[in-house]
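Troubleshooting: if your tokenizer reports a length mismatch, compare your output against this known-good record of 136 residues.
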Amino acid sequence: MAVIRNSNNNFSALSGAAFSQYDLLIQTTRGSLNELTVIKSASASNKPVGVAKYSASAAGENVTAFGAGDKCLLRVGPGGSTAGQYGKIDSTDFNEVVAYTPGVTTAVFCICRFLETRSENEYAEVELILANDAST
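Known-good structure output:
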């Protein structure tokens, strides 16, 4: 199935595995967004392309994902979040996002900007960025 983007920048593809709503998703075929799966390791090459809008119970299901510029919910990792902070993938739980300060940490793939303050393990509304942090 080809990637289909709608006016909200959401996109559709096939699931490469089961995953939950609001999980960070990576492409399983390099150079193609036709299959998405959940992150399973802390590899630097695991750069999310979206966030699951709905869960998928098995591989091969049609899925819709939030893309860069979209607002969605993400689970907050250790240290919590404050509105306005930027988020990166937690190094121990790949579906949690932890706050960081741009320009201080090297080689960061920025996931989002937090739109609200939340504690660890809560879901926070975020604006997805999904790009290398240009300030590092």
